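[Meeting: bench + compute handoff]

Bench side (C.D.) handed over the final construct sequence. Compute side (W.E.) agreed to return the predicted structure before the next meeting so the bench team could plan truncations. Sequence as handed over:
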Amino acid sequence: MLVLLVIFMVTAPLMDFRIPMGLSRPVPDPPPPSEQVTLVVERGDLFRLAGTPVTAQALPAALRMIESGQPGFLLRIEVDPDADYQSAATALAAVERSGIEKYGLAD
């Protein structure tokens, strides 16, 4: 019993030691999600931008036109599993040439 008393007498002052700790501040609300436009690459070198059929030659101009109307939108690229690799590469090159910064591939 005396041993427990000695242990508590020794450890009690140590329990008062405080570690300085910075707590995080509340984060403001995230910005609203940006507008999302879908580019679908289909079989046979066919492209659909926001549901509208577009040729490979007209794709960069159509992307620039959408970018000028909706700056900061998110482009979602969906590639049909039956589409050629060249069609997907053409779509990605058109996106790069049009200057769109926010784009991603969909599953």
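W.E. noted at the follow-up: DSSP finds three helices and five strands in the chain. C.D. will use this when planning the next construct.
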